[in-house]
Every structure is written in C-alpha cells, then in structure tokens.
C-alpha cells in the first residue's frame, strides 16, 4: 500500500482487496483504451485525470451541496483541481490534504490570496505556497470532495490503493471536522462508474457522483467509519504520518 505493508487481514478482507485491485486495473485500462485519460501519465497508481474533468467539476460546483458549503475539503489530485479553484473563486475556505498526509492539512483562505493566484493556489505546489499547514486545527467542513478510481451508483468507492482518502476522513472525524452527515462527493468520468464495489468497515462511501454527463445522488447512504481503526494500521504508517502520531499520543480513536 504505497510502500506500507498491509495490516493482517482475514479471508473476506483479502478477497475485497483483490476485487478492488481488479476494479482499478480494469478502469485504468478502459480509460486508456477509450482515449479519455489525460496527463499526468502513467495513470496507473493515480486518481486518473480525464477528458471532461472540468465539466464534471462544473456539475459539482452547481450542486446545492457545494453552493451551501462555506468550507470545502478537496483531495489534491489533478482531476479535482477545477473544483479547488472554483471553491477559492466563490470565496470558500479550502482545505486540502498534503500528499500522503506527510505535512498534515493545508488551509487556503481566498481572502488572503490574490485573485490572480487562485489557479496556482489550486495546485499542490501552489497550496503549499499560499496555504497554511495545520495538523489538528482543521475548521469544520461542510463538504468533502474525494478523488476516485471507480465508484458504484450505490456509493461504493475505490481509490488508488493507498487508503489515504479513507484515513483522511477518519482523522477528520476524530478531530470533529466532519460527521456522519457531512456530504461527500466525487467527480469521475462516466466510464469510472462500475456495478459493484466491495466496502470494508474503514471504507468511506460517497453521497454524490458527478460526471461530465450526469449527477447521481446515492439513494441509500452507507454507514461511515466512526474514527481511526488503529488495529488496521501498521507501525510504519503511524510513524510516517505526524497527525496519526499526535492522535495516538492523545489516545484518540473516535
């Protein structure tokens, strides 16, 4: 898992992991075969960028969940860059996770950034330049946007395999920045919607799916993780992520 050894797992968990890995391979291959994948390449091992990412972002931005949100959390991957820029241009406080959570979270206040720099600030390098790094002092989040390799109409989500998006949610939940009803959205290409996604107890479902062609609201939301499940983490993971070390020292899990 991105350099970390997986925690011990039972047969059902291993089967779910294998099924997710196969979904990733199938979706990455399909995006390349249909010619809709965009740089950065290779797309394998990434949240894939795709033709129509701006249109999918525009659908999300027009949604009621986005319009009502004052604080938006968004993943740092390429296809969601237009979402991050739109949040800044609409005067919303933007929260991003640093890559692999090594530097905690980045908070970007559009009132402190020149409008001419909003596009730059919506990139990873720009977020480090214009945002402030925080570990545990994360503002209350009104909408969480996650990057996805694949999703199902039932709200299941497959990431790139590192588990960081689910871990971000778990950490934010422990910090009180998100809750059971915080809306979670994703933007994907229509080809990234699959029939089924196996979900484990630490997996975070989505409530809204936005594609270049459609907006899907999940009709029967799944239960979310209540916090950090320490038994699923390895010592290497905790050691590599400062916020996890801080939460463990405080004895916090949910």
Explain how this protein is built.
- The protein has 254 residues and is of the alpha/beta class.
- 33% of the residues lie in helices and 16% in strands.
- The chain has helices at residues 11-33, 53-61, 64-68, 81-89, 118-121, 124-130, 164-175, 235-240, 242-250, and strands at residues 37-38, 49-50, 71-74, 93-97, 105-108, 132-134, 143-146, 150-152, 157-158, 184-187, 193-194, 208-210, 215-217.
- The strands form 3 sheets. Strands 6-5-4-3-7-10-12-13 form an 8-stranded mixed sheet. A 3-stranded mixed sheet has the order 9-8-11, with helices on one face.
- Helix 2 runs parallel beside helix 4 (81-89).
- It is globular, with a radius of gyration of 17 Å.
Separate helix tally: 9
**What proportion of the residues is helical, as a percent range?**
25-40%
The tally of beta strands, per DSSP, is 13
- Assigned CATH architecture: 3-Layer(aba) Sandwich
SSE string, helix = H, strand = E? HEEHHEHEEHHEEEEHEEEEHH
Mean pLDDT, to the nearest integer, reads 93
Keywords for this entry:
254 residues, alpha/beta, Rossmann fold, 9 helices, 13 strands, 33% helix, disordered N terminus
Briefly characterize the structure.
The chain is of the alpha/beta class and 254 residues long.
SSE layout and pairings?
Layout: H1 11-33, E1 37-38, E2 49-50, H2 53-61, H3 64-68, E3 71-74, H4 81-89, E4 93-97, E5 105-108, H5 118-121, H6 124-130, E6 132-134, E7 143-146, E8 150-152, E9 157-158, H7 164-175, E10 184-187, E11 193-194, E12 208-210, E13 215-217, H8 235-240, H9 242-250
Parallel strand pairs: 3-4, 3-7, 7-10, 8-11, 10-12
Antiparallel strand pairs: 1-2, 4-5, 5-6, 8-9, 12-13
């Amino acid at each position: 898992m991105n350099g970390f050894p997986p925690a011990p797992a039972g047969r059902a968990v291993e089967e779910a992991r294998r099924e997710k890995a196969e979904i990733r391979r199938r979706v990455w291959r399909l995006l390349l075969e249909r010619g809709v994948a965009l740089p950065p390449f290779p797309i394998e091992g990434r949240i894939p960028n795709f033709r129509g990412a701006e249109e999918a972002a525009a659908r999300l931005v027009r949604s009621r969940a986005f319009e009502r949100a004052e604080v938006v959390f968004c993943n740092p991957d390429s296809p969601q860059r237009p979402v991050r820029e739109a949040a800044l241009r609409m005067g919303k406080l933007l929260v991003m996770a640093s890559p692999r959570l090594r530097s905690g979270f980045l908070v970007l206040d559009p009132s402190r950034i020149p409008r001419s720099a909003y596009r730059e600030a919506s990139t990873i390098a720009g977020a480090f330049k214009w945002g402030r790094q925080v570990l545990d002092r994360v503002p209350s989040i009104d909408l969480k946007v996650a990057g996805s390799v694949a999703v199902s109409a039932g709200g299941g989500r497959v990431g790139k395999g590192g588990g960081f998006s689910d871990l971000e949610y778990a950490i934010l939940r422990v910090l009180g920045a998100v809750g059971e009803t915080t809306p979670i959205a994703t933007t994907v290409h229509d080809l990234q919607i699959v029939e089924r996604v196996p979900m484990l107890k630490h997996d975070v479902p989505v409530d809204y799916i936005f594609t270049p062609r459609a907006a899907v609201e999940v009709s029967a939301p799944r239960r979310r993780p209540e916090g950090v499940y320490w038994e699923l983490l390895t010592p290497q993971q905790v050691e590599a992520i400062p916020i996890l070390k801080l939460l463990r020292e405080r004895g916090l899990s949910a």
